[in-house]
Amino acid sequence: MKAEKPMQPDPRQHYLTPLRQTTFHPRTAAANRLNSWGPWGGYTTVLEYDDLAMEHSAIRNAATVYDLCPMVKYRVRGPEAAAYLNRLTVRNAAKLPVGAVHYTIWCDDAGHIIDDGTLFRLGEADFRICCQERHLPWLLDSAFGFEVSVAEETEEIAALSLQGPCSFAVLKAAGFDVAALKPFRMATFGFDGGELMISRTGFTGDLGYELWIAPDHALALWDCLFEAGAPWGLRPIGTQALDLARTEAGFIITNLDFVPAHQAVREDRVRSPFEMSLDWMIDWNKGHFTGRRALLAERERGSRWAFVGLDIDGNVSAEHAIVYHDRKREVGQITAACWSPTLKRNIALAHLERPYHAGKSDNLWVEVYAMRELQYVKLMLRAKVCDRPFFNPDRRRATPPGPF
Amino acid sequence: MIYDAVIVGAGHNGLVAASYLARAGLKVVVVEKNDWIGGAAVSRELYPGFTYSNCSYVSSLFRPEIMRDLELPRHGLQILPYEGGALFTEGGDYLGMFRNHDANRREIERHSPRDAEAYDRYARDVLRHCRFIRPMLLRTAADPASFRPRDIAELAWLGKQMFGLSEMAMYDMIRFWTMSIADYLDEYFENPAVKAYQAVASIIGTALGPMSPGTAYVLLHHAMGDVDGNVGAWGFARGGMGSITKALAASLKAAGGEIRTGSGVERILVSNGRATGVVLENGDEVSGRRVVSNMDVKRTFLKHVDEDELPASFVKRVKNFKIRGSSGKLNIALDRAPRFTALPEGAPNMKGDLHFTDSIEKMERAYDDWKAGHFSRDPFQDMMIPTMIDPTMAPPGKHFMSCFIQYAPPKIEGQDWTDADRDAFAKACLDQIEAHAPGFKDSILHVEVRTPRELEREVGLTEGNIFQGELTFDQLLFNRPVPGYAQYRSPIRDLWICGSSTHPGGGVMGAPGRNAAAEILRDVKMPKKDMSDAYAVL
To answer: Whole-model pTM?
Structure first.
């Protein structure tokens, strides 16, 4: 790729550019017409390329590419890798077939969530964890007594998310036949003299794939996708468009929707899987896992918080609003919200004190301060607890996927 | 003329106490033995064109509530956050500290990828301890044995803070307050340089090594301050640390207070068990309804009060109070900036704290020399070049360098320091800098060397201890300085103490002076007007 890789200056002078550039930076920078950047996990990433509404609309209408490189990646290998991951995470990693992926979480001993992420089983004794935050000391400490190695490999893999109803068609045009690939499965293909791994995963709640490749072949992959995707109007999307889509899908983001146990300064900010509606993942029968005892006790005792989807009156989105019962009593907090262009609903994700999530959920209100020409318009809007995901189309699961 | 309060010593705490009392309407005078004010927060020009921070050299602990109450910014005080820092390692590299979170992580990653990912959790845990202790700084410690309603109420408040913690947090807190920094850091980090850098704040001003129990608290003491809400950050006072006391003096004078310099207190006058004023070294008598001593507890009660006036048990406890000298200071005027070979040209790390001790082991060896009654042969330095940020302290292109050095014992193998000892001490420090910045010695215009001998003689700190008493758990809260007398009072009615020997301890914090003033106002049944409570910790 000649001189396109970013220059590597004196490693001691990293402070001149505190944020790293991702492998795709030459392409994302060229496409970033608004020059709109934000930090993500130590990298500078695009917030909005040219038009948020167009970017979001492309996710639901055509196909889009999102630079996923900053996702933190750990490789877990060794004869006891599955046993180790079973102890580390709440789901049953041993049941995950080779070539499959599952969404999972891991907790501390008190049963509070440390992070969520996706676990890829690359081989019988070879896994990759992809997550938002960094955990090397925790992963290494947890490995005590297991025949397993844990290594951080974020920089060794470049990743792109290809999402949208036409993403299958784009891949096909690019020469990758993933017709038989079911959700949460992966397949490998030769590409540019290297190997491309495609998993049918994503963060938009729509049909989509994630593409994993060594950095040396990454720009060629970008170019190949955009050439093949031109008839479908393939476009790059920034984090803001993705955030809209993930809210529609009802997905959560660590540090936006909950404070991870290892970072919470205030002890009451941590959450258990029950409190984030993630207890469905827990395999109680697989044997011991970190946090099991505390979670069993919580199952008996009951939890303080619940995490819910809200459907809010009106069309003013309610980011970070306080939720009230009967307009008076504070019972929760919204962590993500938007007017959903796809659903034509005003939706939100919220922490609610129990039992206001269910038994006493009939009289909920959110207090919204809508800034209009330098003045707040104060609104008290009715909110109803509703099912998540808000958006969950059949095309997301169809195998083989349709052309659009 | 009878003053309402005679404050002994124009250090920062004395001036803080005096200013609050003057604002409340009391007639106060501050008496100071030196021709200048400031105590250990002092800036003097010892070489033409150069302003030194002769003793204390950085600011973080000074309470923002006090700066605001006493309108110190209006009286000229500016605190400048500093930018970075570096610890030079033996192999010719360095470990930098950066304000930018990502730069900082990448720097640690250069030395240990594991430690880079451990740092956030460590910083979080230290911050938790800071959040617990910060509300206590501007409160008088409860006396757990008194059973007075105010003490019971204060204990209840403390209990509420404690019970607000989870079980694990409570365990952690008790461990943290009592353990060694070496053990604490081992729980987070693997890299010696990373550990050494974090350990810096745990030994400063303390006659303990990083492997001594109790040093983790000393780290907390240095981490609990802030610069504009950035907890743990440090900064420079523009114009040197003397700017703090200059602003305090201006604030005091604006409130009608007086300052008399040039003659120290010979004796605190006691009549019928009450303090009634002081006699100065020049023979002048200053009468007051109360005397407030900013001197350390040993100096106050063992040198300036007739022992007969004090209960024997009190005297014994004061004698036992640990106030051991452990440090010295070099203040250097430089013709040009030193060039540290390990640092890339223009690195921001020059605008902060610099160190040469790259492992806990080496720090402990430096302490071993102290135990043997000698200054450290391979000393630990906390070095700053304030002129990298502050343009007011030296002519353009020239620099003022402040080197805080450990360990320096109060006596050399049992004998008083000699000039030859002092010069050998200075040489060990200058040689160490030269080794990392060749040509440094040639750029020296002037050096002020201060061993514990000079610190005691000039500033009045017993043994040269910068905190007026060590910050170990046995000497904190209701045990500081002496059980039963932790509320700024003494066995002699109307004799008060307001220096760093009292809760919450040393550093240029101002809290002891402010708290003492609060107690005095309480005693005279005057409202705490113009005195803010600690800002809430959200």
So the answer is: 0.95
